[in-house]
Amino acid sequence: MRVSWNWLSSLVDLEGYTPLELADILTQGGVETGAPEYLHPGFSGVVIGRIVAAEKHPAADTLRVCQVDVGGTPELGGTSNRQIVTGAVNIFVGDRVPVALPGAVLQGAVLPGAVLPGAVLPERERAEPVAAVELRGVVSNGVFCSEKDLGLGSVGTERSRDGVLILPTDAPPGMDLGAYLELDDWVLDLDLYPNRADCLAMIHVAREVGALIGRKAVVPVLASADDPWAAAGLWPASGQEIVIEARDGSRRYSALIVENVAVEPSPIWLQNRLRAAGIRPISNIVDLTNYCMLEQGQPLHAFDLDKLSGPVCVRRARPGERLTTLDGMERDLSEDMLVIADENGPVAIAGVMGGLDTEVTETTRRVLFESAHFQGAGVRRTSRRLGLRSESSLRFEKGVDAAGSGATLERLAGLLAELSAGEPVGFSEQIVDIPARSVIRLDVCRVAEVLGVAVEAEQVRETMERQEFACRFRKAEGRDTVFEVEVPTYRQDLKIEEDLIEEVARMIGYDRIPTTSPHSLQTQGTRSGEQILRRRVRQGLVEAGMHEVVSYAFVGEKNDGAWGAADRQIRLLNPLRDEMSVMRTSLVPGLLGIAGRNVARQNSAVTLFEIGNVYLAREPVVQNQPIGELPDEVMKVAGVVCGKEVKHWGQAGAEYGFFYLKGILEALGVRLGVAFRWERPVGEALLHPGRSADVYVGDSRVGVLGELHPEGAANWDLRHPVVFELDFRMVAAAARANGHELQARTVVAKGYPRYPSVQRDLALLTAESVAAGDIEAGIRVLGGALLQRAEIFDVYTGPPVPPGYKSLAFSLQYQSRERTLTDAEVDEANQTILRGIQEEFGAERRMT
Amino acid sequence: MFPVPMFHDLIGKGMRGMRDRIREIELHVLEELEKRLSPEDLQELKVRTMGKKGTLTALYKEMRDLRAEFKREAGQMINDVRETLEKAFADKEEVLSDLMLKKRLQEETLDISLPGLPVRRGYRHPLTLMFDEIEEIFLAMGFSVAEGPEIETDHYNFEALNLPKDHPARDMQDSFFISEEIVLRTQTSPVQVRTMQQMCPALPVKIIAPGKVFRYDDDATHSPMFHQVEGLLVDKGVRMSDLKGVLLLFVRQMFGEDREIRLRPSFFPFTEPSAEVDVSCMICGGKGCRLCKGTGWIEILGAGMVHPRVLEIGGYDPKEVTGFAFGMGVERVAMLKYGIEDIRLIYDNDVRFLQQF
Hints:
A: Phenylalanyl-tRNA Synthetase, Chain B, domain 1, CATH 2.40.50.140, Phenylalanyl-tRNA Synthetase, Chain B, domain 3, B: 357 residues, alpha+beta, BirA Bifunctional Protein, domain 2, two-stranded antiparallel ribbon
């Protein structure tokens, strides 16, 4: 809501406040207000001139020499006429135009009204002052100005588009243009919360300001403002029939019939006020509907009565009905839309926009002014569906006071008379119901209980009365600390006691509320077991050198479907973009995308992970059929590595390959007390078949690890990326089963053997198809209790190892808890292992 | 390597000869000793002189041929020389080993200007850092960490929060829809109601709820997905002043001990009274700067007293209990705290950006 300072000043005394101070008071009071905007674009020395004569320039075809009346005082002997040479083509004798006299500054002038610290001013450089010049031998004492020259929006007549700004024919010559257009004004832009629909009316803004600064607003006195039923008594009943057929869509429809209408431009003061509010003046009739709406908050609509026939009906649109609205667009109406119709069909979309056919034009003589209430929800739906928002729909959506429609027509009638724009002759009205003032109980003790600050009963009363709410003791309760407060119908936001407590707090100022500590019992703040484990996983991956990323939960359909579960994918009805159209079912595509982006920017060492939910429909998704219940949100942890460690002089960097990532997962397993098992995957199409593994905990498959299939890697512009994705819930369950959910990991500490260990290396020659892990496991079993450690320290293929074979070297450590081992014992154990391995895997001892 | 003189060839036998030879050996060895520059060479000389077959040792044998009266004298002499030589060897050994050590240290000198071996570490995402920091502060105040679904029913996301269908306040939160009844949650507030329903009738309900939220928005200051932390305390006798106290504590731990907060009336359908919470600018301290647009205050939170209707839906009797709730945008807090100017950086995940945290 744009609020003109000058207009507001006419409704409440603002003496002693600057616009900036007031903006701050409003913001502190709960009506967020931006920095005030000064309306004057910053010209000076520009006055209104009347063109008295215009003749062709003696020496130039494209120029004219004009004599211009710029006011002045001829009776004192001076002539007020100026000679101005112009190339403008859109001006005629008799026109009123802006004249920049010598010394005038067209932009960047310092204006006394604008000098206000902290205010937002148009930032324009100061232009050179206008000077008298000679054009082809003829002196020009000034220049005519266009709207653009002056930095003004559209303020002139239609002809102004072609050049010089043409002012209304009653613009007084000699008057300063800024004063004429009332540009020495500030606009406060109120950013209203949805609950303060009342502040979409100047009179209620004035009341709010008055309450906040402790001054009473002086608003137009209207009989029907106090008594919503009074309007019917102000004019004779007209014969116009009104029918509210859709009684759930409208509470009230009032119509004022006006005859002898003279459609013409509005007086400049009216135009100025509309422009300051951001509304374009059109004609007196339309302007008055807008003015009354701005002032009273009640949207009005003017129909050309001669173009209506039969009863005016408020009803739902019928199948197939269409309407061409004022903006010239033909609209298809659906059956839940509320319309105003006469006997020939819809003439307006209720509360949104009128129809073109019944629009008020220059030839209109009789007008039906509509002042009605429409349900906000319906208007909101309709205006969204049609993509059509107006000042009217904005107000109806937030809620218009059905008690105020009569008062607004009363105000309109007064202004019509003031402007001699027409004569009210009759009134018709259909009422479903009119809201009564609500009476709300307000317990002073409760104010203190909720706010934590003691407020005296008298002060509570004062905060209510400042807002013009009637406030009296509730005798029935026998205490002098309980009030009943009568709330005006325009404050629809106030329904319960807490609403009034906020009003008290607003009026005394939120800064009166002290800071205290809750009385609540001392509680121990806790995290859930899963949250603790999630943090531990994150910590583990970070310590392993991986960077955490956070990516969007909605992704492109195709990539995600391939990686996750295409049949469980949930589609957004209104995605922002195609690549954000489904909820992810896998974290991997997002990570690959981020990895690709990093590599493209030469961030070549990529080690990334993400912990987050994927979203799976509980049933396979049927095309175009929305899911019926909330999906399963499955927390996953996934990562990608690609490239190699940054080169270092003292250390060969590791390749970010399969084993790099496997090592990180193994370490993670240790941290969580979970033993991962690795199985060759079956039917995995996206990963390299020879370089990938299914990850198991016990018998459950909890995820995958592997290098991308070379074909897939190319699509992501990555060289040999390796990814993993684990189902965090399953891993967490396994960890929890092992008692790993406590903050401190549960460890049962063991001592270490005190007797010396014996080290033996064992080199084996085995077929390449035999898994090293199997041999290692075999060795552990065969080694029995004496074998403390068995580690593969070398894997080798190539000469002299024959093709199809590989050499594996194990480092074995024997140790007893009871005694020092003898060589013979160790030799025997080693032999047992060797024999077993030979038998089971056909491996041979390799002599080096 | 060098000729070994055969003393007994040169000098006659007998005591005089013996005396000369002892002297000779002494002189010769002392002279040789000076020339030896490595511990090994020194050792070789020592062995050759005083080892089992050493020249000096040999003299003990020869001594047996002397007359008895010379035996004692000769023995004494040999012992003296032996002592002298041993001392000389020891001294020399020490000198040489000092020398060797110096040499070794010299050789082992490193270019200490070379960088150390890299310790690979990863980085938590800045949003995680923020979550951790916020959570720790509230955990210490006794708030537990609760979570709820990111895809929500219209009921929990709106209706249960006093936002019926077609309520104009829904415009404040343009939603992503899955179906008519299912949305991506636009706020973490649904966790309020879910937690109350779960805990009722236990008191107090004292939680924070961090998580992802989604709104139909995308520009330099709005991301279609972002994160919030919701807070809720429901108990007997909870006051708005308690809200102020808790938030002041939070703000001071988060942004510094000098920070102040300011509450302004606001509107949220699920709180009444409602407040917008500003914190005094962490850059200028309240004097006014670019960050706070000259006001000295920065908006960081929405808060208020839980609306009685919401308490009811949560299962509690608003006549018995009151509560406060607050919510903050984590990106906004991160942007303020780390001076991030464009929210899109947070979701771009460029390694160079991530490695700063």
